[in-house]
Write a structure and sequence with these properties.
two-stranded parallel sheet, alpha+beta, 2 helices, 12% strand, 66 residues
């Protein structure tokens, strides 16, 4: 995560998502295109805020709270 932070990238996960479930998503995110920015933060989101099509199990998904 330190490398991501050096390039102003932040991975957004549900607050209660266990660490072992994050890793495969981070690896998949290496295929995403992200802009190079030198100020501010670019958020990589894994959820499209649609609880019926969430990449997370129901117990971890924050979409149901929206």
């Amino acid at each position: 995560m330190e490398l991501w932070e050096a390039y102003h990238l932040v991975a957004d996960f549900p607050a209660n998502l266990p660490e072992p479930l994050k890793y495969p998503l981070l690896v998949k995110a290496l295929t995403f295109e992200a802009p190079f920015i030198d100020k501010g933060i670019f958020h990589i989101e894994f959820c499209h805020y649609d609880s019926t099509n969430s990449p997370f199990d129901a117990e971890y998904c924050d979409c149901k709270d929206l």
